[in-house]
Amino acid sequence: MKRYIYLLMALVTLSACENELELTSPSQLTAAGFWDSEEGALTAHTGLYTNLRSSAGTLWLLGEIRSDIWGGRTYESPANESLIESNITVATAPFGGWAGLYTRIHRLNDFLVNLPNVTFNKESDKNHLLGQAYGLRALYYYTLLKTWGDAPIILEPFTDIDPAGLSRARSPQSEVMAQIKSDIAASLSAFGSDSSYWEGSRVFWSRTATLALKGDVYIWSGNVLGGGSADFTEAKTALQQIGSLGVSLESSISDLWGVPNETNNEFIFAIQYKRDEASNIYNSLTGRSTEINPQYNDAGESMSDFIISGANRYGQSEKTILLLDDNDDARKDATFIRLYTDNNGGAGYASYNEPTYFGSIFKKFLGRVDGSERIFENDVPLYRYADVILLLAEAKNLLGEDPSGEINQIRQRAYGTNYVPATHAYVNSTQTNNANAILNERYKEFIGEGKRWWDLRRAGNSFVINEVSFLNPGDEYKLLLPITIDMIGRNPLLEQTPGYTN
User: Fold this and answer.
1) Tell me, which fold does domain 196-210+226-272+379-470 have in CATH?
2) 195, burial (CB in 10 Å: exposed 0-12, middle 13-18, buried 19+)
3) Mapped to the 3 state alphabet, what secondary structure does 427-476 carry?
4) CATH of the structural domain 1-194+472-502, one choice from 3.40.630.30, 3.40.50.300, 3.90.1150.10, 1.25.40.390
5) pTM, rounded to two decimals
6) Mean of the pLDDT values across residues 201-213?
């Protein structure tokens, strides 16, 4: 990732886009001579991942913060309460300028337009890069569709200095989804049979990542947009291919998390973080030593030696605490460190005890300690194989098939030697019961990974309304976000998201 870093810095400086679809001047990404060599193309390729990483916090907020995971006790001032509570109006519309995603798309458009004209020593390398770029563009457009519904479709880099030529109307969701599917097909075509990882690393997009995205997209298309069985079958077929492509569940949760474990076989695609390069967002889910050190964990152990210098802006909801309050399930201790104001006479608290509960530290991405400093440099997965298994369960259930095998595969890993089939195994039931069981398993499995809001949305509006306490029947329009008044003022072709009034 550090290759060509100085050239990359110059590229980023030249190509900054100040307003999404509201530009007053074109990007300079297409500077003359930049695309004359393989070296220049590889620098641009590195920049695509730098750009993705800079959007990681936004992707996390979009995919998780409006769900039922957070909103509980914090020991510092909480953040994003209006999003957690779905208290959103046109006047308070979040993520102005389409959350910066069109800047990312612009750079991918430029890459896709120019890369085919560059001579590579190995044509297979060029094809792999094309596969990555189409996959990333599909990911961004999928995020736009899930967040706002109708969205502008732009497939060429901005070159026109006339601001009027930069305005685009919102295309219907059906057309946005068609474009996503087209990019997925183009990605798979470019990869061909090449299932390798660029530079042997899963911090780059791959054919496997595109197949995971395809399964996700086609379930959404089938269930939310009405594509039905044909889409569910496409999803199932894509997801079933992944198990033979060098990915697998880690045998235990303890083998999955932590900086030394981030090269595991379960991660399919992860955003990379390195000391002195970039830190992830998860220090905001921890806290400061002044609050943490006087407390005790639920085993009754003092936290006085715990090294941290973070913030505690998000607290797990009581619903989340109770969902994970199962001492046989390894995900309980792998996900949070629960803090109490006393040690209960040295016995700790085997079960949640509200009167002495102080708050939590999110544990999955706690980085590593170097002397007196904690470095938040965990790679953060966007897709891992557990995700694929439970997406496959969704596809099967929507096709009227039995998803219990996939559900139980995840449960067996979670319970390990504590797994008792008579107690823990899921038995196939009605389609609604199965859907709720899958959602429950995904809830426990992916806390903090930016999945839960999308999982509820993909299941259908009724599941969102039933599970998120801040939403009620009649609030379905809130499942999509409004765009800001400023965005409409800058681009008169934009229309407000249905249900919101100016």
Assistant:
1) 1.25.40
2) middle
3) CCCCHHHHHHHHHHHHHHHCCCCCCHHHHHHHHCHHHHHHHCCCCCCCCH
4) 1.25.40.390
5) 0.94
6) 98
